[in-house]
Automatic annotation (TrEMBL):
One of the record's GO molecular function terms: arylformamidase activity
Natural source organism: Microbacterium immunditiarum
PANTHER family: CYCLASE, PTHR34861
Taxonomic placement: Bacteria, Bacillati, Actinomycetota, Actinomycetes, Micrococcales
Name assigned to this protein: Kynurenine formamidase
SUPFAM superfamilies: Putative cyclase (SSF102198)
One GO BP: L-tryptophan catabolic process to kynurenine
Amino acid sequence: MSHPSENPADLDRQNPKAEIAARAEAYRNWGRWGDDDRLGTLNFIDAAKRVEAAGLVREGRVVSLSQSFDTNGPQKGWRRRTNPVHLMTDTGTDAERGNQGFPHGIGGADDYISMPLQCSTQWDGLGHIFDHGNAWNGRRAGEVVTSEGDQVTGIEHAASVIVSRGVLLDVARHLRPETGELEDGYAITAADLDATIAAQGSPVGPGDIVLVRTGQLTRTRRDGWGDYAGGPAPGLSLTTAGWLHRTEIAAIATDTWGFEVRPNEFDVPAFQPLHQIVIPNMGLTIGELWDLDEIAAVCAEAGRYDFLLSAAPLRITGAVGSPINPVAIL
């Protein structure tokens, strides 16, 4: 069976429907892990892979890969996504005034937070995107995600799964060594990914979690949020679908809002076509809005680009995504 081209120049920019369908069919993993599967490509992470990843810890250094969760965030209200609202229900002032009702001088503080689950660093779960009404593994979307949440592939099923070998692909540093930042709208190709791997000496294989740094967050920190959450961005080309499939990676994350290049690679309307292929058809878990700047600096200094990565979602029953604080341990 011939596979779709991995050269963006070969895309029919007038026919996203056909380009999406060809890749969805070519790289579909439905049934690969059984009819009852809830994890998709996270199945590539096994005990041996975690033992391998643990062996990468040599210094005990921990780097958080999360952006902040606060009101000074990137969200502008698209699809009702807002920045977190953090409120205090008990404060130090209450404790000083002794109006909390506790005996013998003890006081405390309490708080809560209200936010969309995908407003900052997060995973897209397998119930997040559908293709022609189909969810992951060929299930009908309406039978999976209801008003009660994701009844089949809720993010809680991955709560004890996402610990593996992480591999940073600093594509921005490799392709733009003078700035370390890819320009908005740059479509990262499979050849770019392979070239970065070769330059870094960081092979990618089954069960790995790949982190792709574009440098857009670096630029955003310098210039302001702007349209970071939803506007033009560097990202993966539609033509990387084959690479994502054959490498058998468990998951992938980027430092951008949308993971794939924006605007998308067509001259007619298309919205997140790579999502449409890899989540419901391939079963690939996607991370977005990750902060990859510090880990990029650490890896460049150390001359190594792999590490133990722990990125467990919150155990939110039926959720189609989850905020996370992923940590790299070197």
